[in-house]
Specification:
Strand content: under 5%
Largest sheet: none
Helix content: over 70%
Structural class: mainly alpha
CATH architecture: Alpha Horseshoe
Number of strands: 0
CATH superfamily: Tetratricopeptide repeat domain
Oligomer: single chain
């Protein structure tokens, strides 16, 4: 929470979004998926505000996990995260795209969207 407070106070939106995703993942792991959802919605909005697809797909993937953990439909955020991942990979060289798509976090996003 302190990291988020510092990021907010210093107008570091990137680090605020990353902090919210990290906090939300911890909440989900602790069985508090409902509490994570609000943090993740703010993280997604922050990523949109700074136009960061890298933070946005991660926030959306985490939001999908939190929704699933709380018994809600995770398909919207999961599909959107997968679409962003695919878009990012299309803009990379073949070698970099292969490395990116092989990353465990990326494969999990693509699998969850199926």
């Amino acid at each position: 929470m302190r990291a988020i407070d510092v990021a907010v106070a210093s107008s570091r939106k990137k680090y605020e979004a990353i902090g919210r995703v990290t906090l939300a993942r911890a909440l989900v792991a602790g069985g508090l998926g409902h509490e994570a959802i609000g943090e993740l919605r703010r993280a997604v909005a922050g990523a949109e505000a700074i136009r960061s697809p890298f933070i946005r797909w991660q926030a959306l993937a985490a939001l999908g996990a939190a929704l699933a953990a709380s018994g809600s439909d995770p398909s919207g955020p999961r599909l959107e995260a997968a679409a962003i991942v695919r878009s990012i990979s299309e803009d990379l060289s073949a070698e970099h795209a292969a490395t990116f798509l092989a990353d465990q976090r990326v494969t999990e996003v693509l699998e969850a969207a199926r």
